[in-house]
Each structure stands twice: as structure tokens, then as C-alpha cells.
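Continuing the series of single-chain predictions for the mutant panel. This is the parent chain; the variants come on the following pages.
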Amino acid sequence: YEIHLCVEPETGHTPEFLKGQIVNAMRGMSTWSRWLRFASPARKLSSKQLDYLTTLDGKNRVAWCALIREKNREKGIGLSRYVKLTGENNIAEFAVTVVDEFQNQGVGYALLKKLTGSARDNGIAILRGYIQPGNKRMLSLCRRLRASISAGDTSLYKS
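Parent structure:
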């Protein structure tokens, strides 16, 4: 797989391209995976959600995509992103998603490493994520990267 910044106009990776990749990737996620990532088993995201995920500026809103080439076409298999929090000094919320077929193959780790590098380069000191308690793979990944994990007021973990 290859990892690229998600929106790179010179490669044809536009917000519309990214939206299409996200729509296709959702089809490659089980109900359980969608629940762990979005706290919902919904099969597709709304236009508003897709706009939110694909409005990127390369500094305060950054995303990295993992892609494979299949029949001379690119197919998205994973995504990591962060959004700098308004009113929080140098803190961004992050998320990582990998389609089921490619989980446990290092894709999430590679995406999160790219994301942390971008955050550091852009002056973000803390990436905060909210993780379902049952998301053992993501919790394990955060521990592997020495993240601080604590139970919050809700049923989600903050790392």
C-alpha cells in the first residue's frame, strides 16, 4: 500500500476523489467496525459528514490516506485525520479507520505515524482521540505508541 496526503490536487486527489474513496471504504467495513469507529452501524455517511471529513487545509485539518492499486485504479483502505480543536492550545482530535480486510497488517500504525509527524510539524502537541472501550485494536495501537489512555465521563476512551 501507499500512503499519501489525502488531498493532493497534482495527483488528482481532490475532495471529491476523497469522498468517493470514503464511500467505497465504508462498504469494506463490517457493522462492528463501523460501530467502533463512528459509534453507529450506519452503512453510509451523510453529505455533511463527508464534507467535514474532506475539508482539509494541511495544517489545522490534515488527513492521510492508505491506498492500493487495483486494476489501474486506486482503492482507499485506510484513513487517519486530525482536526485542531478551537479554543484548545495546540490540541487536535484524531481518528484512524482501516477497512476490515487490511486490519492487523500495519496500515493503522503507518497512518498514525504519518499523522503524528504532520501534527508535530504543524505545532500540535497533543492528539486526542475518543475510542470505544471494545476497540481493542485501536487501544493496542495507542499503547504501542505510548499514548496516555484514560476512561472519560462517557463510554469512550481518550488517548
